């Protein structure tokens, strides 16, 4: 399908935390005509996310954190989410494990890869690798809360899986990666095929 698209030119609009570019391209339609299109693309790197699940208690560990884009859209500024972060040169699983420990204070075990998703492919280049892992009293290492130097101030929230699913339906949880991972757990598809 890529032969349908020819990039004509790229212009960098902003290059700070991420890079915002405007791309002109020719798109060859199925009828053979070529249409000139303009698209903007925001790239700040790929990421990984992990839901921490305690199967004995049927609970999950989430974090509540400030999200300016949600506030700018007129929604609540603090969102409940699974642990996540940019790869920063690591492979996705290493990143997901690192973020879980930094954000919740738990070192996950029995980690499985759930899949890779684009959360907003119309304008954001970021691909997010999704993972699920187990936690319990034995995985606790510290209080969590994120890294001050990254501007993080996270509240660790433990809640029942059923309550989290209800929150996905009633608007208490609106983050896409979090909804996907919670639904994954709810469907009972988490199989542990290797030990962490």
Summarize the structure in words.
The protein has helices at 68-72, 92-104, 161-170, 176-186; strands at 5-15, 19-28, 34-43, 47-54, 59-66, 78-81, 83-86, 109-118, 127-134, 155-160. By secondary structure, it is an alpha+beta fold. Strands 4, 5, 6, 7, 8, 9 and 10 form a seven-stranded mixed beta sheet that branches. Strands 1-2-3 form a three-stranded antiparallel beta sheet, with no helix packed on it. Strand 4 (47-54) and strand 5 form a beta hairpin. The protein is elongated. It starts with a strand and ends in a 10-residue tail after the last helix.
Entry keywords:
196 residues, alpha+beta, Nucleoside Triphosphate Pyrophosphohydrolase, 2 domains, 7-stranded mixed beta sheet, 3-stranded antiparallel beta sheet, 4 helices, disordered C terminus
Highest CATH level, the class of the largest domain: Alpha Beta
Count the helices. How many?
Answer: 4
Mean pLDDT across the residues is: 91
Query: Which fold name is given in CATH as the topology of the largest domain?
Result: Nucleoside Triphosphate Pyrophosphohydrolase
Q: Which homologous superfamily in CATH is the superfamily of the largest domain?
A: Nucleoside Triphosphate Pyrophosphohydrolase
The main sheet comes to: 7 strands, mixed
């Amino acid at each position: 399908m890529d032969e349908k698209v020819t990039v004509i030119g790229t212009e960098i609009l902003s290059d700070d935390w991420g890079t915002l570019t405007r791309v002109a391209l020719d798109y060859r339609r199925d009828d053979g005509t070529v249409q000139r299109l303009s698209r903007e693309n925001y790239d700040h790197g790929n990421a990984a996310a992990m839901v921490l699940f305690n199967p004995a208690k049927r609970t999950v560990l989430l974090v509540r954190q400030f999200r300016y884009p949600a506030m700018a859209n007129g929604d609540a500024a603090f969102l409940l989410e699974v642990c996540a972060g940019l790869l920063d040169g690591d492979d996705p699983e290493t990143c997901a494990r690192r973020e879980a420990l930094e954000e919740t204070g738990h070192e996950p075990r029995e980690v499985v890869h759930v899949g890779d998703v684009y959360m907003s492919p119309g304008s954001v280049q970021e691909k997010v690798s999704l993972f699920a892992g187990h936690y319990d009293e034995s995985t606790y290492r510290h209080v969590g809360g994120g890294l001050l130097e990254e501007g993080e101030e996270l509240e660790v929230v433990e809640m029942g899986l059923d309550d989290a699913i209800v929150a996905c339906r009633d608007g208490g949880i609106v983050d896409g990666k979090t909804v996907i991972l919670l639904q994954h757990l709810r469907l009972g598809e988490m199989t542990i095929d290797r030990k962490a």
